Amino acid sequence: MKQPFLIWAKSRLINIPRIFIAAAAWTVCLPLCAARATEKIAVFPNAAYDACIIYQNLAIFWFFIIGLIVIIGMKLKEIDRIQKLGIDRDDENAPRLD
Amino acid sequence: MSYPRLKNWLDERYDLTDVKKFAKSKLIPEHRYDLLYYTGGITLFLFVLQFITGMLLAMYYVPHIDHAYESIIEIVTKINLGWFFRSLHHWGAQLTILFLFIHLFGTLLVKAYRKPREMVWITGFILLIISIFFGLSGYLLLWDERAFAAVRVATGGAGALPVFGGFIKAFLRGGMDVTGDTIVRFYAFHVSILPLLSLLMIGLHVLLVQYHGVSVPRSEIKDPQPTVPFFPNVFYKDMIIWLIVLGVVVTLAVLAPPEIGIKADPLAPPPANIKPEWYFLMVLETLKLFPGTIFGLNGETIAIICVVVGISFLFLIPFFDRKANRGEESTVFTVIAVIYVVYFVVMTAVGFLS
């Protein structure tokens, strides 16, 4: 009869040989990954705070762009309406005040 | 918005009546393919963006073999928003060339090059070549191993051309190999010679478009032709599209800043799976199609000659397509145009995925 501890250890959740292999791999791979990471040059601010500020500014930037597009679109609609009415053209026969 | 004092100041000194009249009378034809008109405006906007970001980067870049790479790292890591402007310059360049290709292929498919707009096509084509050379010269300035290997391959390919190949290669490299002299040479091209040439060509291209007016595809010619005033209707639409493009470039610059590789070492072997910029992939994949020798002749030389002939044919297409010039339907040239577009897209995709 198997020991309760061994049954528990051999369960899918906590498997001692797997943990041992993972720990060994982690110990070997981590310094290698770190060495590789040092080769890469940071082309974007590393600090989480800076990254957060940048993404926030990107969202604000898009907010202004969409706002401007809406304003220009409204202006364009108004121009179309005026042109359809034909009141944008100069009346050459209009009396002059001077 | 109205500035009466500024208006008066200008009116007292300059007679702008003709300019105002021209702006008011300029009409843009409306048809099914008029979206193509805006690709030209987008390219112009991106050129301006490139000039501005390029000027900012030039303040900190050092075109010297010992300092070029280090100065870019300094721009990216130490200068305020340096990473952002470098990224913006990089993505601006990619999109400029992308929109130039879209504009060129669109013009080719609707045959906007036909009489009397041959010179509009020629100036536009020269602008594309200048922009590609802008890309190549800018790519080397980074001086990392990938840029070094890519420029070595590209200039070496030019050297495979018969008669002039050796001269072109030596002229581009400033010597026998890609060295510190090449950086100085490419920097001079990138910041002075090419900007001057492109300004001249942009001016000429825009002037010719104003002179001839915007082309209407043959199938879309109507009597009377529906038109829309350039100012303010098309101008406002242009502004909306420019804002969207600016948003896209900024987003790409923030979310995908370009990587910097290891510093170039002329004595080190080239890195594995080296690829040039996407707009050279078509040429690279074409070169791969040819065997080493063909009837005892160098296969690379024949491949380069084929590419040059293909590009030259496209460059001179307005002078070959006589039917389109007479206002007749020219199915053969429509098929040729489709082949060019499909070949470019397929070969670029193959190069990208392989």
Task: Tell me what you see in this structure.
The complex is a heterodimer of chains A (98) and B (354). Chain A is mostly helical and 98 residues long. Chain A has two domains: 1-40; 44-88. Helix content of chain A is 69%, strand content 0%. Chain A has three helices and no strands. Chain B is mainly α. Chain B has a domain at 26-261: Cytochrome Bc1 Complex, Chain C (Up-down Bundle), CATH 1.20.810. Chain B has 15 helices and four strands. Chain B has a two-stranded antiparallel sheet with strand order 1-2. In chain B, strand 3 (293-294) and strand 4 form a beta hairpin. Chain B starts with a helix and ends with a helix.
What is the H level of CATH, i.e. the homologous superfamily of the domain at 26-261 in chain B? Answer: Cytochrome Bc1 Complex, Chain C
- Determine the strand fraction of chain A and express it as a percent band: under 5%
Number of domains of chain A: 2
Beta-strand residue fraction of chain B = under 5%
Mean pLDDT score of chain B = 92
Number of helices of chain A: 3
- The sequence of SSEs of chain B as H and E is HHEHHHHHHHEHHEEHHHH
Number of strands of chain A: 0
Q: Structural class given helices, strands, pairing of chain A?
A: mainly alpha
What Rg of chain A do the Cα atoms give?
A: 35 Å
Estimate the helix proportion of chain A, in percent. Answer: 55-70%
The biggest chain-chain interface is:
A-B, 22 and 25 residues
- Profile the largest sheet of chain A: none
Largest sheet of chain B: 2 strands, antiparallel
What's the average pLDDT of chain A? 76
Detail the poorly predicted runs of chain A. Answer: 34-38
For the terminal residues of chain A, how far apart are their CA atoms? 116 Å
Span between N and C termini of chain B?
Answer: 55 Å
- Strand tally of chain B, please? 4
Low-confidence stretches of chain B: none
Number of helices of chain B: 15
